[in-house]
Amino acid sequence: MTAAVCGVGDIVAVPTGVGRRALVTAGAVLIVLGLGHVPLPVDGRVLGISAGQARMISAGALGVMPFIWWYLAVEWGLLIVPPWRRLRHGSRAERETVTRVAWGLGALSSVVQAYGITTYLRGLRLPGVPGAALADGDIFLTGALLVGGALVSAALAILVERRGLGNGWAVLMLAVALEELVAVWFGFARREVPGLPLAVAGQALIVLGVARWLRRPIEVSPGEVVPRITLPTCGAVPLSLAAWMLTVSATLAGYVPALAPLQEALRPGSLLYQKAFLVVAALLAVVLVAVFSAPSAVARSWEQLAGTGLAEAGQVARQELSRANQRSVLFVVALAVLPILASEMGIPLAVSAGGLATVALAAAVVLDLIADVHTYSGPTPLAALRPLHRVHAVEPALAALRQAGIPATARSLHVRSIFHFFAPYAPVELLVPAECAEQATAVVEPILADGATASSGLAAT
Q1: Could you read off the pLDDT of 52-88 as tens digits, one per residue?
Q2: Which end of the chain is less packed: N or C, by CB atoms within 10 Å?
Q3: With the CA atoms of 145, 148, 153 and 156 taken in that order, what torsion angle do they form, in degrees rounded to the nearest 10?
Q4: How many CB atoms lie within 10 A of CB 435?
Q5: Closest CA to 298 of 390, 409, 387, 234
Q6: DSSP 8-state class, residue 216
Q7: Dihedral, 222, 223, 225, 231 alpha carbons, nearest 10
Q8: Is 80 exceeded by the pLDDT of residue 128?
Q9: For residue 444, is it left (φ>0), alpha (ψ between -120 and 50) or beta?
Q10: pTM across the whole model
């Protein structure tokens, strides 16, 4: 069922019907996984590719990543160039223009990457193996498969975002990551690695535990306004950044002979690497809770609620934020310490230290899928308000709508809260009954407009 809502540019009709949306999402996942089994005409012996790495030489090799990187690059551009900053929290039309730019650059990037890969493979030879990794006659076919796979993956991500369940980009990235994880587990099983059943069960429990921790309260009493903070306030970004920083440090150390021992010590999987990862991730978490959820910005969002019955909304929000920040840092530390515990207990950990953010992403995707199933199961026609790119503004907006007696839900909130600024491909959409859309826009506009004009840093996400 589709609602037709006109007259307000930031409002769009939202197709409902959970069954159809589930089929769209499942179909997209199967197609993207299938692309990983369409081989390129490449000699894998020259590349040293094993069976478990088949996706690296398949039509799914690029996947959605060229588009993800350009989403982020464009967002950085909007942040750095002052005249463009207003577009980060502008109208739906302005954000759609920004999104189309990212799509176009992503498509161009996939062509450039395909050209670079084919050129590299054409000249790659291995002693004892006749011929190059890629024959001259297969260059066009290889490039076409790489570009085609990337474009199909991106189109499916957009389709899922608009007509499916969950955020399409996150769902498809997670599907590929899980396929690779299963391949690692099968590799452990073939080698009869001890402790494998415990490792598989433990990692499943970790995902469930993270999901339980991230889950937001579903309902409060009508009219009740209590400042609530979306967790984690630093996201899982400290985990990804810590792994990247250590990798860069080890790589740079390789160019300095005197630092060669450091490069070996920071080898992923070593005990020193794991301890350094824990320390760096914890420090980054302390910094990023303030960057993504600046106390002044959070308090200002809550203070926009007029007549809430909560006279000191801003002050209470700051207190809640302080507690949320502490929990968020502990969340990062708890995940970062897992590789050390697994190493000490002799348990094989299929997820690398840098891949721990994927654990949090898995939990977030599952929670968003469950929320979407609940949202789209009802018969009420829905409409989406202006997309939000600031996690800390979502709860005040929902509180304002509750106070006005308008039922609302936030789509893709869990995925966005995992990566904050680093997930511009996952805006949070407020879904309301179509008949209340214009009223809802008037209710939340003061909160959204204040954040768009008063904050220009990363905290504005």
Answers
A1: 567 788 999 999 999 999 999 999 999 999 999 989 9
A2: N
A3: -140
A4: 14
A5: 390
A6: P
A7: 30
A8: no
A9: alpha
A10: 0.89
Q: Go through the chain and tell me how many residues it has.
A: 461
Helix ranges, 216-294 (H)? 237-253, 260-265, 271-292
- Report the SS3 class of residue 410: strand
Q: DSSP label at 39?
A: B
Please check the confidence at residue 6 and state whether its pLDDT lies above 70: no
Helix (H) or strand (E) holding 140: helix 139-163
Q: Is the confidence at residue 101, as pLDDT, over 90?
A: yes
Question: What is the reported pLDDT for 181?
Answer: 81
- Taking the C-alpha atoms of residue 244 and residue 250, their distance in angstroms, rounded to an integer, is 10
Q: Under CATH, which architecture does the 18-460 domain have?
A: Orthogonal Bundle (1.10)
pLDDT tens, residue by residue, 422-461: 999 999 999 999 999 999 999 988 887 765 554 445 555 5
- CA 7: distance to chain centroid? 32
Cross-strand bridge partners of residue 143 = none
SS3 call for 433? strand
Distance (Å, whole) CA 434 – CA 443 = 15
Segment 227-262, tens digit of pLDDT: 778 889 999 999 999 999 998 888 888 788 777 787
The candidate with the shortest Cα–Cα distance to 154, out of 220, 60, 218, is 60
* Both tokens assigned to 444: 């939340």
Q: Which of 56, 21, 57 is nearest to 168 (CA)?
A: 21
The DSSP code for 380 is: S
List Cβ neighbours of 295 (8 Å cut-off, separation of 6 or more).
Answer: 318, 321
* Sequence-separated (6 or more) residues with CB below 8 Å from residue 363: 207, 208, 210, 211, 214, 414
374-to-117, 178, 198, 370 alpha-carbon distances in Å: 43, 24, 33, 6
> Could you tell me which residues come within 8 angstroms of residue 233 by beta carbon, excluding any fewer than 6 positions away?
289, 292, 293, 321, 324, 325, 328, 392
CA distance 415 to 427: 9
The domain spans of the chain are 18-460
Which residues on adjacent β-strands are paired with residue 2?
none
Which of 158, 335, 302 minimizes the C-alpha distance to 235? 335
User: Cα–Cα distance between 113 and 146 in angstroms, integer?
Assistant: 9
> Helices H, strands E: what count in the chain?
17, 6
Amino acid at residue number 282:
A
DSSP summary character for residue 428: B
